Amino acid sequence: MADDPLDSSPSASAAAAAAGGVCSAPAPALRPRREPFEYGLLPIPKLVFPEGTLTQTLSQLKERLAPGGPRVGAAALADALQIPAEQAALALGTLAAVLPAEDPELGEDGAGNADLRDLLLFIYIQSYKRLVPRAHKDSPAVADVWPSTSAFDGYLSALSPIQFVRSNSRRFMPSQADEESHQLSYLQKHMANILTLLADSVDGEGDDSMVLTMETFEHLGFLLHLSEGTPLSQAATFFANSDPDMPAAPVPAALVHDWILQHIASALDFMAEKSAAKENSNNAFDPDVTMSDAVTNTRIHSSSPTGTSAPNYPGYYRNASFVEGCSKTSVVKQASDLKGHSIKVLNCHDSVIYILAPLKYATVYGCSDTTIILGAIGKVVKVEHCERVQIIAASKRICIANCRECIFYLGVNHQPLIVGDNHKLQVSFALPSVPFSTSSDVYQYMVIRNVSILILL
């Protein structure tokens, strides 16, 4: 599914126009693709390399895999990284789930061969560290108000939904904009190394000896995309309007690096301006907000910029719908109510949530004592930091992390991936062909306690 069209940011257009001839026409804003960062990170230590040796290690991996051709299968990856075949298959399956478009040679399930460039990018970002909430300035006082002691010591579980609205808690939590800014900053820091990894070496000296073809440049779409859905190569003047029958000549990697950094910098500046404007706005959360107002204003957000509590600028809540802060209520969302291809159910308590729509991705985070029914999720469901939650879901893949006393009724195509510190889970699922096993090599990095599993064949 292509990204929904969005308005380009003024600062991005201005920066592009002033880019020293690199891009003289106004251009849509450059954004990070959330999917690889949110659904593509795996708890496999041998896929995570120290930052100081990351580029060198992946360059060596590229040299080992390149003689086999531009495509890499699970067996070759397992041999090159010295990892079990199950882990290599899991890596390719996860890669297939977070690609911007289906790769026919890799397949929807990752059973085929991956493009080496996509694989290198996928392994590179395994070193990404997610943004975590800052501690609340008065956590003990807040915890005294919430009637039950949570099994989690984290800040999120200490707040009831209404306290979450009334307090200044949002400034302590990473919002969608915070996460995108963090992802852009990561790409800004590592882009030179990423381009070096993808570039081809030609005769010459200095920066001109490393070049990128238009095809390789498009593979950066795994990590970045333009807010209007325009292909990257059509927005960059060095590749724009190229004749399909006569491919554009490769360009120096340094030129590509400058173009990307200019657009990332303008996007970060724009996000910072909007964040500052939001903090200084008089439309901040009303400390005397009623429960009905809280449910109306904070429970449900969509990708539409008309929401009462969502900033009206590109990239925020983009291509995602949100169900947030529900308490003691029921919510039914059908296809006509949702925009984009993903849903996030956040910080809901003692509620029943129905998501009855086909989507690609779904996240359930920070919920307790809630039943959540998810319709057909074509790619991945991720459940994190939930307590006493029942999940009924049909999905291709599911990842469960740091949950307690939860019950899962699943129809899945692949083994559930259970990671982190989990306690007293009950999992009942239909799995077409592969039996679930907590003792396989794929799961050797998990901490699972008191997990009851019922396999429905």
TrEMBL record:
Keywords: Cytoplasm, Cytoskeleton. Residues 314-451 form the C-CAP/cofactor C-like domain. Pfam families: TBCC. SMART domains: CARP (SM00673). InterPro entries: C-CAP_CF_C-like, CAP/MinC_C, CAP_C_sf, CARP_motif, TBCC1, Tubulin-bd_cofactor_C_dom. One of its GO terms (cellular component) is spindle pole. It comes from the Eukaryota. Gene3D superfamilies: 2.160.20.70. Coiled coil: none annotated. It is found in: Cytoplasm, Cytoskeleton, Microtubule organizing center, Centrosome; Cytoplasm, Cytoskeleton, Spindle pole. PANTHER family: TBCC DOMAIN-CONTAINING PROTEIN 1. Belongs to the TBCC family. This is TBCC domain-containing protein 1.
